[in-house]
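Inverse folding, one chain.
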């Protein structure tokens, strides 16, 4: 009988500790939600500025658009390019990509915002510069190949991470589709 009491007592104690810790974490997140949002927006702006320098970035899509977020980069009230934040499913989860596109429709560069759920040492290698640099100057949906690229819009996949590579290419394709919808048509 004493053993059952000690097990129930320990179980109750663990449940109470879990509830208190969960409440503390949720309360802290709620209390600092404005600061967290501000830091996330500041980090996003720094990444945008790294890819495409501009004085201001204006959101052209709705905040929760399924296709992603599409911004126009402005300097002296003149459009200097576009930034798209899109995602596509890789091996473990969505891979989030920021794509900078010039005013003429050419990819100026990409930044992988999140590939943390991809396989470490394989899929997470899509964040490496030698992979992301392949997207520079493409103007059409990139095709992923396992071999050395033969065409201008072909990208060589990261070895052992074809799904992750395809996810990045799909996210860039979404960015180019947003460019076609908003920049080319002038919506």
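Residues assigned per position:
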């Amino acid at each position: 009988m004493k053993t059952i009491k000690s097990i129930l007592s320990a179980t109750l104690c663990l449940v109470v500790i879990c509830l208190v810790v969960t409440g503390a974490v949720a309360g802290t997140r709620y209390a600092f939600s404005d600061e967290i949002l501000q830091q996330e927006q500041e980090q996003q702006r720094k990444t945008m500025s790294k890819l495409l320098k501009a004085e201001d970035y204006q959101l052209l899509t709705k905040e929760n658009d399924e296709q992603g977020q599409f911004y126009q980069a402005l300097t002296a009230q003149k459009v200097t390019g576009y930034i798209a934040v899109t995602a596509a499913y890789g091996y473990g989860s969505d891979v989030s990509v920021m794509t900078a596109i010039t005013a003429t429709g050419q990819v100026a560069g990409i930044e992988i915002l999140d590939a943390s759920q991809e396989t470490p040492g394989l899929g997470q290698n899509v964040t490496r510069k030698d992979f992301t640099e392949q997207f520079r100057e493409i103007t059409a949906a990139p095709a992923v190949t396992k071999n050395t690229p033969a065409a201008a819009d072909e990208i060589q996949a990261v070895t052992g991470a074809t799904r992750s590579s395809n996810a990045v290419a799909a996210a860039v394709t979404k960015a180019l589709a947003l460019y076609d919808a908003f920049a080319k048509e002038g919506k």
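DSSP finds four helices and seven strands in the chain. The chain has a mean pLDDT of 90.
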